[in-house]
Amino acid sequence: MPGMKPGPDSIGIVAISHGCPGVAARACGLVGLEPARVAEILKDRLSWYRDCRTVDVLNVMSTGNGGTIELLYMQLYAPTTLAPGRDFWLLRYTSLLEDGSLVVCERSLNNTQNGPAMPAVQHFVRADMMPSGYLIRPCEGGGSIIHIVDHIILEPWSVPEVLRPLYESSMLLAQRTTMAALRHLRQISQEVSQPSVSGWGRRPAALRALSQRLSKGFNEAVNGFTDDGWSLLESDGIDDVTLLVNSSPSKMMGANLGYNGGGFASVTSSVLCAKASMLLQNVPPAILLRFLREHRSEWADSSIDAYSAAAIKAGPCNLPGVRAGGFGGQVILPLAHTIEHEEFMEVIKLENMGYYRDDMTIPGDVFLLQLCSGVDENAVGTSAELIFAPIDASFSDDAPILPSGFRIIPLDSTSDAASPNRTLDLASALEVGTAGSKAGGENSSHSGSTKSVMTIAFQFAFEVHLQDNIATMARQYVRSIIASVQRVSLALSPSRFGSQNAFHLPPGTPEAQTLARWISSSYRFYLGVELLKSEGNEPILKSLWHHTDAVLCCSLKALPVFTFANQAGLDMLETTLVALQDITLEKIFDDNGKKTLCSEFPQIMQQGFMCIQGGICLSSMGRPVSYERAVAWKVLNEEETAHCICFMFINWSFV
Questions:
Q1: Residue 198 to residue 191: CA distance in whole angstroms
Q2: In whole numbers, what is the pLDDT of the chain averaged over residues?
Q3: What is the model's pLDDT at position 317?
Q4: Mean pLDDT of 467-483
Q5: What is the DSSP letter of 423?
Q6: Quick one: how far is CA 471 from the chain centroid?
Q7: Cα 263 to Cα 253, 342, 374, distances in angstroms
Q8: Is 543 in contact with 532 (CB distance < 8 Å)?
Q9: Which listed site, 26, 232, 418, 550, has its alpha carbon 20 to 30 Å from 617?
Q10: 276, 203, 269: which is closest to 235 by C-alpha?
Q11: What angle do CA 312, 226, 245 make, to 5 degrees?
Q12: Helix (H, G, I), strand (E, B), or coil: what is residue 121?
């Protein structure tokens, strides 16, 4: 990058692209490691790339100039429960230049190049890597300057419309891949130059391995691949929470559930995972995650924490009832952090808790190993994670780790819509104790993402004969957490009427204004009262957009689909204006609602309106929504012919 001079106190400069196919980022940085060591680390993706599930080197060939050509197959985890993972079939070329520089080039192989083929793999979508890689130049006096280019096409067509920004965001690629590589190199460079023992007598490499186990275990739970031993449990009729169970020996060994720390024979033989994803509105991921970390008692159940701690200890344990329990004291013990404090690990000590064993509650403390990232609200467009697992107080290297937690990823950010030629110093927000960390990002928590997707996954070790009881408990617990998160999000959300969240008209402003006028006048015509209470010269559309009840319009087709919704309607359906048009009317009603709708729909067309008793409907994410009552009316255009049907759900809330 022209004019870029990375210094020893800077992670480097990261640029993101807006004008190319797919997503792309590039970076340049300086580290105190020799080029050969840098290349070795970067090629070992599993050691630093948290989203990478596996990299298989299927063939290696030497070249005449001392380089190598490798055929690679790589799999990436999906970041949410709502889309499949990605895989790549790659050619990698490593070469040593005359000036001592190392070049590592990678790109996808496809049928047009007459190269070897890799058949499609179940549960993965084949993605493309455009020419990418690393240029590693030696520095005088030691160290290396590294240039990184990441350019991939993630096939966003294969995911739901609401999630496509995740697969079209170069900023997310920069954060989770490009900057992660630089960060890892800097961390290892520091460990080499300043060897030390940190938290709880553990060396940095050992703590890094623990953080990898937490991250990988959480990703495995979110994805639930069948070749890892996961199988789907039958739904209870409401598809908001997905349950999977894993009884494979490899899962038991991976979690070290046979660990014997107290002289008892372990009888735990299976793991159950309850997972869900939800759409969040108008709450910055960093602020929400920081609240979840600092106020655990607002969403967690102490009896479940105690059960989880007992279940991974040697010896049988009994199932507690879910209750809204208070905590004993919560003590946060710092353990380790990356150089830029982007990610840190800590031990949470929950004091005066109880272990459930043999129908007895044994008083004691519960320890959670916790990994936290993305809590800096000044960092632009970053995802946030809070992953934790109960651990034995001995903190042994072979202690079992069964991670649970939260991941929040922004779906839209003003920064990703910046000038195509803009170079973002994303790394500046990661510096320690510098004024630059605040520059340019002071109001990012307000001007950045307005929508994000939260993925929740909780794992429970259990004995096989308790599976039905554990499944019921897990569903109930995750649903209670979802409700708590929703409540907290509303409390943390800035006012929609404040200056920092100025009203933005939906797409097609003139048409939307006309539709708002038709909706209002038709409601007055059929029900005899005003729908909107406009103040002063406030536009009708703005009043409708901010109406507290959910207002949704659907087409008059044989299979009605939604065409418009106000903000409350989008919140209720957990969708966006773009994705709204993929939702059919019948999809949001349960069986009773569908019967009522079919029998009463002719009344709407003849009488012009209908009042509907309170009931349950479903969001686009499958979450149940209760409403006190609903009103449906025919919307007439200026020729007084029916344009659409409008529904208003009054006093709705998530169950």
A1: 11
A2: 78
A3: 38
A4: 92
A5: P
A6: 23
A7: 18, 39, 40
A8: yes
A9: 232
A10: 276
A11: 35
A12: coil
Domain chopping of the chain, boundaries: 14-110+122-191, 224-251+269-314+329-352+363-413+450-492, 547-654
Q: Are 370 and 305 in contact (CB under 8 A)?
A: no
Q: What is the dihedral of CA 581, 587, 588, 591, to 10 degrees?
A: 160
Asked if pLDDT for residue 303 goes beyond 70, the answer is yes
Neighbours of 190 (CB within 10 A): 16
Per-residue model confidence as pLDDT tens digits over 134-167: 999 999 888 899 999 999 999 998 898 889 999 9
Any idea which architecture 547-654 has in CATH? 2-Layer Sandwich (3.30)
3-state secondary structure 69-120: EEEEEEEECCCCCCCCEEEEEEEEEEEECCCCCEEEEEEECCHHHCCCCCCC
Residue 39: which of 172, 134, 132 has the closest Cα? 134
Hey, which of 26-40, 414-428, 506-520, 592-606 has the most confident mean pLDDT? 26-40
Residue type, 574: E
User: DSSP characters for 125-169?
Assistant: EE-EE-SEEEEEEE-TTS-EEEEEEEEEE--GGGS-GGGHHHHS-
- Report the amino acid identity of residue 470: I
Same fold across 14-110+122-191 and 224-251+269-314+329-352+363-413+450-492: yes
Q: Where are the alpha helices (DSSP H) in 528-621?
A: 540-545, 567-573, 577-580, 591-607
If pLDDT is split at 50, 70 and 90, which confidence band does 501 have?
A: very low
Rounded to 5 degrees, φ, ψ at 476 are: -60, -40
| 533 band by pLDDT with thresholds 50, 70 and 90 | confident
Split at pLDDT 50, 70, 90, the class of 535 is low
In CATH, which of 3.90.550, 3.30.530, 3.30.450, 3.30.1370 is domain 224-251+269-314+329-352+363-413+450-492? 3.30.530
Contact 392, 454 (CB under 8 A): no
Structure tokens at 468: 């039905």
Q: Which residue has the higher pLDDT, 429 or 400?
A: 400
Confidence class of residue 95 from pLDDT cuts 50, 70 and 90?
A: very high
pLDDT at 408: 95
Q: Residue 431 pLDDT > 80, yes or no?
A: no
- Buried-state track 533-549, b at ≥16 Cβ within 10 A, e below 16: eeeeeebbbbbbbebeb
Residues 6+ apart with CB under 8 A from 346: 332, 333, 334, 335, 370, 372
CA distances from 642 to 190, 318, 596, 632 (A): 70, 61, 21, 13
Supply the pLDDT for residue 495.
44
- pLDDT, position 131: 94
**CATH architecture of residue range(s) 14-110+122-191:** 2-Layer Sandwich (3.30)
Handedness of CA 591, 474, 653, 223 (dihedral sign): negative
DSSP output for 429-479: GG-SS-GGGTTT-TTHHHHS-SEEEEEEEEEEEE-GGGHHHHHHHHHHHHH
Q: Give residue-wise pLDDT tens across range 600-632.
A: 777 788 888 888 888 889 888 788 899 999 999
Return the top range by mean pLDDT from 1-15, 418-432, 511-525, 594-608: 511-525
Look at the block and give the residue holding tokens 């149940």.
Answer: 624
Q: Beta-strand (E) ranges in 239-294?
A: 242-246, 270-281
Question: Residue 235: its pLDDT value, please?
Answer: 79
